[in-house]
C-alpha cells in the first residue's frame, strides 16, 4: 500500500498498464485507502485491480485457493518477522507471499508457464527478504521507491 | 488435527492445541464451548468461510488459527506481558462485588491496555500525570479539597442534575479535563465488543477498574455492559477509582464490599472515606439523628448527593450515624444479577443505535479518542488503527469512522 499511496500522491512513477492481481487482504487495504484519501480515487480507478482468485493459468486452471491456504500456513510460521497480530501488521504482505507460492504452482510446477513473469512491487524490507529467500529468480521484486531515490 | 477446507477441498491441517490455546486465552469466556468452534473441533474439519465467520464473532483474526504452537505462544506472550506490566503480581485492580462485579473481562482489559499503550506512545517523553500519587500523604479533608480544585469540580452544579447519568457525565468530563486521565466505558453497540452468550455473562459481572500509567492512567466504567450497575453506583465507582489513582494504590484489589472489610483494611478505608466525604460531607451527616433516618431520608440523601441507596447506607453506618440494627432494617433486599436473557433484552430496549464515532469515543475515552483521531488523520496505518479501536480488522466500520474524522 505504501507504493500505491506514493503513486497516488504523485511522488513516484509506476507503470500500471498490466493488471494488478490482489489478494482479499490487499483489496480491503485499497478500499480503506480510498476512504482515507478521497483525492487518490481518480488515480486508483486508473489501475486495473483483479482479484487473485480470478487468475487463470495458461492451461485454463484457476488460482487454487486450497493451495493458497496451505502455503499461507507454511509461510506465516516460517517468516515470523513479517506478521504481528498485536498491531495486525503484515497480513497483507503474508498474503502476497502465499499468493506467489500458489501462482508458481509450488506443488504442481507444470501449471506455471515459465514464459510469464511474476513481478511483486514492495518497499517492505522483511517482505523483500522473504520473497528473495523463498522464490529466488523465479520472480522479480521491484521497489519503485528505491529505484527513484 | 482439524482439516481446513476450501469448499470441499482439503487445504491444510491445523493444530487442535492451537485452537484450544487460542480459544482458552480468555478462560472466563469459555470460547472452546462456543458452538461455531465446538462443532468443527469435534468433527475435525471446518471450511475457511466457517473459520472466518467464527473468528469474526469472537473478535480474533482468523489467521491466528494458522499459527503453530511456538508462534502462537509468542504472539500471546506479548499480550500477557503487557497485562502483567499493568497489573503486577498478576492481581488485577478490579472493583469486585459479589454478584454484580465479581469477574472482569481480560479481553476488555487487554483492549484498554492496547489503547493506552498507543496513546501514551504519542505523548512527549517527559509527560507525567501529576495527579498520580498526589493524595498519598494527604488527610481525608485535604484529599477532597485537592480533588475538587485539581479537576475544578463544582459540587453544587453536580448536585443540580436531575438525572444520575448526566451527573456522571459531568464528572467524567471534569476528570478528563486536564487530558492526563482517560475515562473509558463499556459499550454494547456497533460490535465494539463480541456479543456471544459467554461474553454477556462476563460483562454483566464486570465492574470498574484502573489501568495504571504514569502518563495517562485509564479508568474503566462498565456502563452499558453491566445492566446491574446503575448510574449512582457508577458515580461512586468513578470517584473510587480516581482516588485509587491519586493514592497510587493500583495493586489494591477488592474482593467484596462490607463494613467490616472497610474498617479492617486501612487503604480501603481511606479511599472510601475520601470518596464518601467528597459526595456526602461529614458536616451534613453529623447533623443527622438516627431517630430521623428512614428509607425516605436515605432516598432524599441519594437524590441530593447522587449516591446509590446502598452507598448512603454505607456512609451512615461507617460514620456511626446509624447502628448495625437500623442499617440491617433499612438495607434493601440483596439483588441478584440479572439473567443473561434479561441483560440482552434490557440492552435492546435501553440502548439506541448510535453512530460508530459515539461508540468508539465512549469505549476509548475522550482523551484517547482525540489522540487516536489525530493519528488517523496523520496517516496512522489503518490496520493498526483498526486493532486499536476495534481490536480486530473491520473494514466497513473503519471506513464509516474515518469519514467522520
Topology order of chain A in helix (H) and strand (E) letters: HEHHEHHEHEH
Uncertain runs of chain A: none
Biggest interface goes to: A-B, 28 and 37 residues
Helix content of chain B: 40-55%
The helix/strand series of chain B, from N terminus to C terminus, equals EEHHEHHHHHHEHEEHHHHHHHHHHHH
Major sheet description of chain A = 2 strands, parallel
Radius of gyration based on Cα positions of chain A: 15 Å
Class per helix and strand makeup of chain A? mainly alpha
Shape label of chain B: elongated
| Overall mean pLDDT of chain B | 87
Distance linking N and C termini of chain B:
45 Å
Query: How much strand of chain A?
Result: 5-15%
- The end-to-end distance of chain A, rounded to whole angstroms, is 18 Å
How many strands, what sense, and barrel or not for the largest sheet of chain B?
A: 3 strands, mixed
Tell me the quaternary state: heterodimer
Which stretches of chain B are low in confidence, meaning pLDDT under 50 for 5 or more residues running?
93-101
* Number of distinct helices of chain B: 21
Describe, in short, the structure shown:
The complex is a heterodimer of chains A (149) and B (405). Chain A has 149 residues and is mostly helical.
Explain what the structure shows:
The complex is a heterodimer of chains A (149) and B (405). Chain A has 149 residues and is mostly helical. Chain A is built from 7 helices and 4 strands; from the N terminus they run αβααβααβαβα. In chain A, the strands form 2 sheets. A two-stranded parallel sheet of chain A has the order 1-2. Chain A has a two-stranded parallel ribbon with strand order 3-4. The longest helix of chain A is centred in the middle third of the chain and has 14 residues, at 65-78. Chain A starts with a helix and ends with a helix. Chain B is elongated and about 80 Å long. By secondary structure, chain B is mostly helical. In chain B, the strands form 2 sheets. Chain B has a 3-stranded mixed beta sheet. A 3-stranded mixed beta sheet of chain B has the order 4-6-5, with helices on both faces. Residues 93-101 of chain B have low confidence and may be disordered. The longest helix of chain B has 18 residues, at 69-86.
Amino acid at each position: 500500500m505504501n507504493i500505491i499511496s506514493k503513486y497516488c500522491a504523485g511522488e513516484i512513477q509506476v507503470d500500471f498498464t498490466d493488471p494488478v492481481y490482489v489478494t482479499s487482504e490487499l483489496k480491503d487495504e485499497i478500499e480503506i485507502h480510498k476512504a482515507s484519501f478521497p483525492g487518490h480515487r481518480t488515480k486508483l480507478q486508473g489501475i486495473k485491480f483483479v482479484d487473485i482468485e480470478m487468475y487463470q493459468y495458461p492451461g485454463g486452471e484457476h488460482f487454487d485457493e486450497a493451495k493458497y491456504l496451505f502455503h499461507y500456513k507454511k509461510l506465516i510460521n516460517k517468516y515470523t518477522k513479517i506478521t504481528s497480530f498485536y498491531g495486525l501488521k503484515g497480513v497483507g504482505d503474508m498474503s502476497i507471499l502465499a499468493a506467489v507460492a500458489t501462482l508458481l504452482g509450488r506443488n504442481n510446477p507444470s501449471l506455471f508457464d515459465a514464459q510469464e513473469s511474476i513481478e511483486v512491487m514492495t518497499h517492505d524490507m522483511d517482505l523483500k527478504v522473504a520473497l528473495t529467500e523463498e522464490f529466488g529468480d523465479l520472480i522479480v521484486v521491484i521497489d519503485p521507491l528505491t529505484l527513484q531515490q | 488435527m482439524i482439516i481446513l477446507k476450501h469448499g470441499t477441498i482439503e487445504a491444510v491441517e491445523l493444530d487442535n492445541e492451537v485452537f484450544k490455546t487460542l480459544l482458552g486465552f480468555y478462560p472466563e469466556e469459555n470460547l472452546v464451548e462456543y458452538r461455531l468452534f465446538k462443532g468443527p473441533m469435534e468433527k475435525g474439519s471446518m471450511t475457511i468461510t466457517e473459520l472466518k465467520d467464527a473468528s469474526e464473532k469472537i473478535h480474533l483474526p482468523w489467521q491466528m488459527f494458522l499459527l503453530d504452537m511456538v508462534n502462537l505462544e509468542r504472539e500471546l506472550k506479548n499480550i500477557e506481558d503487557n497485562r502483567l506490566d499493568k497489573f503486577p503480581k498478576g492481581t488485577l485492580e478490579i472493583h469486585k462485588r459479589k454478584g454484580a462485579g465479581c469477574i472482569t473481562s481480560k479481553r476488555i482489559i487487554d483492549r484498554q491496555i492496547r489503547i493506552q499503550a498507543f496513546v501514551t506512545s504519542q505523548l512527549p517523553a517527559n509527560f507525567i500525570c501529576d495527579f498520580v500519587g498526589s493524595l498519598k500523604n494527604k488527610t481525608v479533608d485535604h484529599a477532597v479539597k485537592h480533588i475538587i480544585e485539581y479537576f475544578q469540580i463544582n459540587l453544587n452544579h453536580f448536585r443540580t442534575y436531575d438525572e444520575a447519568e448526566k451527573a456522571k457525565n459531568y464528572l467524567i468530563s471534569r476528570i478528563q479535563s486536564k487530558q492526563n486521565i482517560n475515562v473509558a466505558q463499556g459499550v454494547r453497540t456497533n460490535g465494539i465488543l463480541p456479543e456471544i452468550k459467554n461474553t454477556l455473562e462476563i460483562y454483566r459481572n464486570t465492574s470498574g477498574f484502573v489501568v495504571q500509567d504514569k502518563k495517562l492512567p485509564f479508568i474503566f466504567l462498565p456502563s452499558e455492559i453491566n445492566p446491574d450497575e446503575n448510574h449512582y453506583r457508577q458515580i461512586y465507582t468513578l470517584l473510587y477509582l480516581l482516588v485509587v489513582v491519586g493514592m497510587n494504590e493500583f495493586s489494591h484489589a477488592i474482593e467484596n464490599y462490607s463494613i467490616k472489610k472497610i474498617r479492617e483494611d486501612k487503604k480501603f478505608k481511606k479511599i472510601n472515606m475520601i470518596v464518601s466525604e467528597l459526595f456526602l460531607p461529614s458536616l451534613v451527616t453529623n447533623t443527622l439523628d438516627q431517630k430521623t433516618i428512614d428509607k425516605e431520608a436515605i432516598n432524599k440523601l441519594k437524590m441530593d448527593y447522587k449516591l446509590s441507596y446502598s452507598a448512603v447506607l454505607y456512609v451512615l453506618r461507617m460514620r456511626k450515624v446509624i447502628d448495625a440494627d437500623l442499617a440491617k432494617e433499612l438495607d434493601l433486599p440483596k439483588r441478584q444479577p440479572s439473567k443473561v436473557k434479561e441483560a440482552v433484552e434490557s440492552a435492546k430496549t435501553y440502548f439506541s443505535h448510535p453512530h460508530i464515532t459515539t461508540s468508539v469515543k465512549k469505549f476509548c475515552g475522550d482523551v484517547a479518542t482525540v489522540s487516536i483521531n489525530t493519528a488517523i488523520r496523520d496517516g496512522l496505518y489503518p490496520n493498526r488503527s483498526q486493532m486499536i479501536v476495534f481490536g480486530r480488522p473491520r473494514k466497513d466500520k473503519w471506513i464509516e469512522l474515518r469519514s467522520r474524522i
